[in-house]
Design goal:
The structure is a homodimer. By secondary structure, chain A is an alpha/beta fold. Helix content of chain A is 52%, strand content 13%.
Chain lengths: 328, 328
């Protein structure tokens, strides 16, 4: 093991803010050091409680994250906030502004805030956010809030690492219950009906309750709905209470460990996929280009081309119906 | 080649509606026959012009698709519409209702409408939509409209097959230009500012123009903005005119072929990734479970586990920095 990595890891385990910041930059930039560092600090992770917050733009996620952080600070917890912004880099200024305003609320160093913006592929951003959460975990944060703008597949990927996921919804145009994505219904442990002083918040809550009843039942926990007005700090204690209840039910039922295993299974599969994609794009560009051209000009059908590309990878595909386990 | 597949393919090439419907069901269900059929009809594809329509829920995409179809019918074109709905299966009723109303607008059989809802993984849905588009292409449709609800990564995947992509935006709460995703800015060939009789539509158009100026320049085409009021059939001829202009610029510059090649490269990489993921989940569940458990309990770091899983796959990873091309 590299001595400088070891001493860097030591500083991170001691919660040194500069060392943590430098590590997060290394993660964002995809530096090789970042992976070495994460390997080194990995055994010190697994202690933080991770809260994911997602929902549509303008639903008040940042304000909510800020309120929750303030609440947990009164309990003496060390907080890390990772705000991931997959929106356009050239319109992302407002988000960063939010973040700076948020940081200014906290005078102490026990709230660490980092925002990560889109850089390269979306999959890469989810990976960087997950790595950042591991790092803050190793740095001794008690609570890590992962906040992400939007409601797409990429955001679902980002909050996947959370122990408890809040989906923030507001009543109003374009954010009807109808429009809620299946994926969100499945990941929400708690729905936060924010800006609930709007006039039709009650109707919206009824709709949401109705939809939740139609959803397939979940083991050990029925998603709750909490009404908040984050800008006035209303409903925050109730929300924290629901999060605590969830945590108790969750830990008691050993769901956390089950969820961790499922998460790492998913992570390992994604990692293998990515390696294969890299291999295809980097080591055999001409083969890939050649096959894609043949398909585009209809000389070859895409399924035959896929078989060729797998052979070119030295990857021996077995028949889908063959007995599992034989070769492993 | 299976004789029944060959005769089924023949019916599809002849545009037989029942044969097409049956094939689309086979695609949706992931039947093995579907792949055989697609391989058989693949050489007859590549003639249709594919229009992708995406945008937030409630932006009026279905009405717009319906108006465009009606417009193209007056030119004697055969139309296929594939409406993909990645929203919750248990709240998806309204969408299906829309579809039935839409179908009723067309008395002739030359507008073929099919909606596909979420079933299994999102990636699977994008794949099914792409296959459905190929099939309608083989069945002789001149224009295929791929319409999808929402603005996430999954929808971007779905419209990726289109030759021309319309992004529908409306001014109003929660749909600010700020909230537009980077991915959408990149895929939009034409922005449709629908419901543009709203009072602040002008301000919104100015914002959008401003953001477009900041975007990196695109070769051969600057995304246009067209204002429509689809419910009143306003702006449809102008929109069709812009689509024609794009098509001309596109075909002239050979962009279509370049785009097709890029699409098939992406498709082949996805296919290889999927095969690897299947292999991992199906043929070595115990190895995957075992490694994920070791990571969850911090006995092993995830990067070492990833290396083990790749070895278990018989997939020989090469060094990232090794010379490319050697083994292929």
């Amino acid at each position: 093991m590299n001595a400088s990595i070891e001493s860097w890891a030591e500083q991170i385990r001691a919660g040194d803010i500069r060392a943590v910041s430098r590590a997060l930059s290394a993660i964002e930039n995809g530096d090789e050091d970042a992976q070495l560092l994460l390997r080194t600090v990995f055994p010190s992770t697994g202690r933080a409680w991770r809260i994911g917050i997602t929902g549509a733009a303008g639903s008040g996620k940042s304000t909510l994250a800020s309120c929750l952080a303030a609440y947990y600070r009164t309990q003496g917890k060390a907080i890390g906030i990772i705000a991931v912004d997959p929106t356009s880099p050239f319109t992302g200024g407002a988000i960063l502004g939010d973040r700076i305003r948020m940081q200014s609320h906290f005078m102490d160093e026990d709230v660490f805030i980092r925002s990560m913006a889109l850089r390269g592929s979306t999959g890469g951003l989810a990976q960087a956010a997950a790595d950042a959460a591991l790092l803050l975990d190793a740095a001794g944060k008690d609570i890590i809030i992962l906040e992400t703008v939007g409601v797409g597949q990429d955001e679902i990927e980002i909050v996947r690492i959370a122990d408890c996921t809040l989906v923030v919804v507001v009543s109003g145009a374009g954010d009807e219950v109808q429009g809620l994505k299946a994926g969100l219904m499945e990941i929400a442990d708690i729905f936060v009906l924010n800006k609930s002083d709007y006039e039709d918040a009650g109707r919206f809550e009824q709709q949401l309750l109705f939809v939740l009843q139609l959803a397939p039942p979940r083991e050990g926990w029925n998603p709750k709905i909490v009404r908040t007005v984050a800008t006035e700090e209303k409903g925050i204690a109730e929300l924290a209470g629901e999060i605590d209840d969830f945590r108790e039910a969750h830990v008691e039922a050993h769901h956390r460990h089950t969820r961790e295993i499922a998460y790492w299974k998913h992570w390992l599969v994604r990692q293998a996929e990515r390696r294969v994609a890299e291999q295809l794009v980097e080591s055999s560009p001409s083969k890939l280009d050649e096959l894609a051209s043949s398909v585009a000009s209809r000389e070859k059908d895409p399924y035959s081309a896929a078989e060729e590309i797998l052979r070119a990878l030295d990857f021996a595909p077995r028949q889908k119906n063959s007995r599992p386990g034989g070769a492993v």
